[in-house]
Design goal:
Strand content: under 5%
Number of strands: 0
Number of domains: 1
Oligomer: single chain
Largest sheet: none
């Protein structure tokens, strides 16, 4: 049974809903039904949401597999927080005008770090 992963999956899902509402708000504001309407703000909103959708699911899957394989719960929480904070920081940094590059960079580092470490942990546990 998973104890920690559902917390992070739920919080990340709520963040995705928030990012989706930003896209919807941009569509209403700019009267764009499909696509980006060649509007830079709309493009940015869509990219923030899409970037989240590209990385968060893989992180959640890796976190769940690590928890299933018996990773200590405190480490599951550490990696879950890395993914959550990383995705929040990246969305804030990329979505701001002008971009907050330090937030975007830290968000990328936390996200990539979490994905790389949990991937290696899962591979190592499966092999050994």
């Amino acid at each position: 049974m998973l104890a920690a992963t559902p917390i992070y999956a739920g919080l990340l899902a709520l963040l995705f809903v928030g990012l989706s509402f930003r896209v919807i708000g941009g569509r209403v504001k700019n009267k764009v039904s499909v696509g980006d309407g060649d509007d830079k703000d709309m493009i940015k909103r869509m990219r923030v949401q899409a970037n989240f959708a590209e990385y968060a699911p893989l992180g959640i899957i890796l976190l769940a597999m690590a928890e299933f394989q018996g990773m200590p719960i405190w480490l599951v929480h550490v990696f879950g927080l890395m993914l959550l904070v990383g995705r929040c920081m990246h969305a804030y940094g990329l979505g701001s005008t002008p971009q907050v590059l330090v937030s975007r960079r830290w968000g990328m580092m936390l996200t990539f770090g979490m994905i790389a470490i949990t991937a290696l942990a899962n591979i190592g546990h499966a092999i050994l």
